[in-house]
Write a structure and sequence with these properties.
The strands form four sheets. Strands 3-4-5-7-6 form a five-stranded mixed β-barrel. The protein has a five-stranded mixed beta barrel with strand order 8-9-10-12-11. It has a five-stranded antiparallel β-sheet with strand order 15-14-13-16-17. It folds into four domains: 9-40, no CATH class; 48-127, Nucleic acid-binding proteins (OB fold (Dihydrolipoamide Acetyltransferase, E2P)), CATH 2.40.50; 131-214, Beta Barrel (OB fold (Dihydrolipoamide Acetyltransferase, E2P)); 216-338, Beta Barrel (OB fold (Dihydrolipoamide Acetyltransferase, E2P)), CATH 2.40.50. By secondary structure, it is mainly β. The termini are far apart. It contains five helices and 17 strands.
């Protein structure tokens, strides 16, 4: 009847109409004659490649919606299919009926033309700006973004960004020193967080973000050095020693002080004498930047302080303790009134 889509004959004909037709087929066995109306018209698919070149943008009308996509009429008799994967940049695994509606006019881009199969592949999302391209233009690598925590997976946090796209903070990019699981526990869905843009892969539609990169790496530079004395906070007490944390809020680091390093006095090398939250002074004995590990010792600090006191005030007899030396020094300096 027509080169265009006909859902019911009444769309083209009415009882009593006089029409011109072409004989398409005669079947003597069944005594049937097949007729055609569209054969008397020019085939709209002739020269379709020239009329609809790949990459060109056109306006069409949605004629039918299926589970796998939507058909768009470019002209009477020429329809193209927008596959569900080409309908939206961000709405994945969504039924086409939730993106477009029948009879809606839409802008589409020609992706492929196959005249022999009378098929035209169209893209709906290609007629819109690629949100990953737009994001990269406005948020280059190294810039800071803010968004809401949309989801937490075994790989990291997904942060909602502009134009309904997400960026991911990998477990290893949440905190410089805490484990991924420990760092993840600090965030919940709905939290607003700031992060640095680490990479934007437009082709793979991926944005890599980092939270720990907002603060400086505590292992870089000369922030900490060997033999330096720092004040640490006890975070865990075990039979083998104590775990401590130190540094600034945006660059906290952890270390483990072994039982043998808890005191110069063997009787005081008891982890249970410490409690979570205690603040103590310790000396950095080694920094392994490659392994991101800092070794500490309270014992080494006590020995260093004793050595300094001996050098300053001198030692009496061998075997004098730090208390003896400091006591003698204080007595020498004390006035009668004091």
């Amino acid at each position: 009847m027509s080169w265009k889509r006909v859902n019911h004959p009444s769309q083209v004909l009415a009882v009593g109409d006089t029409v011109k037709v072409q004989i398409v087929k005669i079947n003597p066995d069944t005594q049937r004659i097949s007729l055609g109306m569209k054969q008397l018209q020019s085939d709209p698919w002739d020269g379709v490649e020239a009329k609809y070149p790949v990459g060109a943008k056109f306006t069409g009308r949605i004629t039918n919606i299926t589970d796998y996509g939507a058909f768009v009429e470019l002209e009477a008799g020429v329809e193209g299919l927008v596959h569900v994967s080409e309908m939206s940049w961000t709405k994945k695994n969504v039924h086409p009926g939730k993106i477009v509606s029948t009879s809606q006019e839409v802008d589409v881009v020609v992706l492929d033309v196959d005249p022999s199969k009378r098929r035209v592949s169209l893209g709906l999302k290609q007629a819109l700006a690629n949100p990953w391209d737009s994001f990269l233009e406005t948020h280059p690598v190294g810039s800071t973004v803010e968004g809401e925590v949309k989801n937490a997976t075994e790989f990291g946090l997904f942060i909602g960004l502009d134009n309904d796209i997400d960026g991911m903070v990998h477990l290893s990019d949440i905190d410089w020193s805490a484990s991924g699981e420990e760092a993840m526990a600090r965030y919940k869905k709905g939290d607003m967080v700031k992060a640095k843009v680490l990479d934007v892969d437009v082709e793979k539609e991926r944005i890599s973000l980092g939270i720990k990169q907002l603060g400086g790496d505590p292992m870089s530079g000369d922030t900490y050095r060997k033999n330096q004395t720092v004040t640490v906070t006890v975070t865990e007490v075990t039979t083998g020693g104590i775990e401590v944390r130190f540094g600034e809020d945006d660059a906290l680091m952890t270390a483990f002080i072994r039982k043998s390093d808890l005191s110069r006095d063997r009787q005081e090398q008891r982890p249970e004498r410490f409690a979570v939250g205690d603040r103590v002074d310790a000396q950095i004995t080694n920094i392994d930047k490659a392994a991101r590990r800092v070794s500490m010792s309270i014992k080494s600090l006590e020995m260093a302080e004793e050595k300094e006191a001996i050098e300053q005030f001198g030692s009496s007899d061998s075997g004098a303790s730090l208390g003896d030396i400091l006591g003698a020094a204080l007595r020498e300096r004390a006035t009668p009134k004091e």
